[in-house]
Structure formats: C-alpha cells, structure tokens
User: Which sequence fits this backbone?
DNA sequence: AGTATTTGACCACC
DNA sequence: GGTGGTCAAATACT
C-alpha cells in the first residue's frame, strides 16, 4: 500500500523533472531563435513559469518523501504540508497544536527557498538602503555573528501578519570588504506587493509616484541606519553604484534576457542548482549573477546605469528581477489549484502569527 | 495612537 | 554548551 504510493510519487517526480527539462529546452530554443521580445516575451515568461512550477513540485515531492515514515512530523506539519498529510488529521490538544506548529515553523523555515545576493557598493559610501528590493521589510532582530565584525540584521516582510507573507531576509556586511553587503533571502513573498511588483516590473513599467515615495522613505530610513553603523569616513553623500551578485545562478541573462544589466559576469559561485537547491527557483536567482546599478544619477551616468535610469526607476531596477518569478509561482499555484507548493501558502492560520 | 526599531531573552539545532 | 534565529517588551518615531 505504502510502497505503491511511494512508487507513484517517484514516477510523478521523474515526470515533473522530465517536463521541466523539456520546458527548459523549449525556452532555450525560443531564446536562440527569437530575439524579438515583443513576440517571445510572453511565451518565454509562460515557459519560465512552467519550469519553475515543475521544479517546485518536484522539490515538494522530495520534501514529502523525506518525511515518509515520520507520521508524527507529517501530522505536525499538516498546515504546511497539507498535501503530504491528507490522511493524518487526528485531533489534538491546543498545546500540542502549538507545539507542532512551532516545530513545523522551524522545519518550514529550514526548507524554505534561500538565496544570497551580494551587494557591492562601488563607492565607499555604500548604503544599505539601496538594497531596497521593492518589498517592504520590517526589522525584527539584530545579532552579532561569531567571527563577523558586523552584526547581522534580520528582516521579515511587513505584511507577514496581514497577509501571511513569510519572506525574510538577513543583511550582513562583509568582513573583508565593508562595501559588500550580503543579503540572504528566505522564502518568497506571498503578499500582494509581490503580485503588484511582478505586474509592474518585468517590462520595467513605471512605478507609481506614491509607491515610489514609499520606497524612497524606506531607503532613507535604511540610509540613516546604515550611517549609524558605518565608520565615520564612510559617511558621505549617498552615491552608490551597486553590484548585486546572486550566488546561485550562473547566467541569468540567459534565462531572463529582458534583464540585460550590462555587467561583467562573475559566475564564480557556480553552484547553479546546488543539487536542486530551492534557491534556484527563487526570484533573485533567476537574475544574472551580477548586475550593477547606479542608484542616483550623480553627475554623469553611472558605469552600469540603465539609459532610462532616473530616481524613480531605482527601486524598479532593483526590484524588477527580484519579483519576476515571485508571482508567477503564486499565480501558478492558483492556476494549478493543487495547493501543492510547500513554500507558497503554508501558514494562513491566524494563530500561527499570533506570536 | 499606531507603527517601527532595539535589544535581551528564549529556543532549537549541531 | 555554543550558535544562529526568533520573540516580545521596551522604546523611539511619525
């Protein structure tokens, strides 16, 4: 009984991976044969969505598989792995419930998509605010890390309570080079801003003034904080040319040609998939490994500045790639209507957030 | 008053 | 037991 079930899972896992491979090939063909974005853009986007969905499903299956035999865990993870535990819904006390949920939360976070961006501030005046990725974050902690000169900041999505968005990020300044800031993202945004950004950004449409203002406010906030943390000699005017390097993907231009940031390719961290690390399906990893932007058009154009870059485009420029794959997955979830994805709508139970 | 940040304490994992 | 991640009360800010 259980064996046939696991066989079936195995087969569908293979099917998903095969499908993903074929879709990737299709996309590859599209990219080779058609450089006209107006023709191929939508198709490509659709293909990418499908590919991401496929791999996500495969990963989900793998996650489920790893829990096989651990019925307690499965039961405990019910709210996050509903698809894995449809048969395990025994009644339990509230205390047990909370306990399970707490553990589930931990496991959940462990398996969450995770990827790192390194933001290099080319000038010595680097400002973390420029890390603004278009999402609003709320700081919930800061901690000194062993062996690290600078404390690590912990942020979570502002809409965590309101919309159950579990995305978090960690911000840490590099030891060797304080102008490099490592941002580790965890989990994808499931909040409305993800959708909104996704609609806005892929084609680099303009961001609403209000929202833009909001982002700038955030930026300023971070700027101030950053100033506090920085050495005095680093406190000058905000002029930042940023290089944002993601670690997990080799060439995102290949995959998202419409994000052609003129940048040297780094590709040193070559763990493209890190054995199918969830990171590879994450928004940021879908970008190029490294892209530059000039946050403010001070004087002449920045080295890597987008021709149309204006102040109002900054966050757009940063956030666009980040959000590209966020929502498609979300939408796909709805589209597929399977509730299959471990990482997308895990915790909609109010009590989960009542921390 | 409502919201965001700070910071010490707590907890799970290794 | 040490460490990283999170919580939550206190505080600051708008």
Assistant:
């Amino acid at each position: 009984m259980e064996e046939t079930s696991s066989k079936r899972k195995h087969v569908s896992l293979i099917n998903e991976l095969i499908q993903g491979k074929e879709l990737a090939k299709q996309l590859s063909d599209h990219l080779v044969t058609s450089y006209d974005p107006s023709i191929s853009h939508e198709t490509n986007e659709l293909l990418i969505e499908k590919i991401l969905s496929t791999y996500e499903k495969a990963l989900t299956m793998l996650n489920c598989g790893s829990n096989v035999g651990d019925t307690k865990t499965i039961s405990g993870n019910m709210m996050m792995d509903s698809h894995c535990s449809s048969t395990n819904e025994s009644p339990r006390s509230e205390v047990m419930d909370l306990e399970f949920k707490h553990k589930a939360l931990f496991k959940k976070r462990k398996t969450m998509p995770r990827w790192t961006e390194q933001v290099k501030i080319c000038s010595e005046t680097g400002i973390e605010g420029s890390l603004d990725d278009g999402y609003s974050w709320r700081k919930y902690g800061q901690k000194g890390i062993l062996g690290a000169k600078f404390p690590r900041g912990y942020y979570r999505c502002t809409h965590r309570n309101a919309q159950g968005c579990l995305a978090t990020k960690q911000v840490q300044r590099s030891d060797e080079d304080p102008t490099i800031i490592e941002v580790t993202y965890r989990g994808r945004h499931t909040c409305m801003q993800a959708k909104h950004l996704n609609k806005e950004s892929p084609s680099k449409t303009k961001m609403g003034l209000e929202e833009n203002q909001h982002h700038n406010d955030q930026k300023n906030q971070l700027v101030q904080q950053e100033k506090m943390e920085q050495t005095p000699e680093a406190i000058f005017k905000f002029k930042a040319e940023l290089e944002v390097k993601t670690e997990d993907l080799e060439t995102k231009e290949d995959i998202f040609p419409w994000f052609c940031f003129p940048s040297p390719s780094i590709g040193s961290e070559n763990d493209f998939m890190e054995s199918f690390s969830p990171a590879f399906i994450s928004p940021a990893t879908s970008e190029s490994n490294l892209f530059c932007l000039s946050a403010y058009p001070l004087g002449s154009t920045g080295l890597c500045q987008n021709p149309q870059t204006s102040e109002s485009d900054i966050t757009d420029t940063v956030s666009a790639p980040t959000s590209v794959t966020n929502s498609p997955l979300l939408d796909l979830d709805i589209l597929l209507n399977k509730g299959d994805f471990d990482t997308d709508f895990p915790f909609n139970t109010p009590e989960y957030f009542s921390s």
Notes: Residues 2-33 of chain A form the longest helix (32 residues). Residues 105-106, 109, 140-141, 143, 145-146, 152, 154, 156, 168, 170, 355 of chain A lie near DNA strand C (CB under 10 Å from a C1').
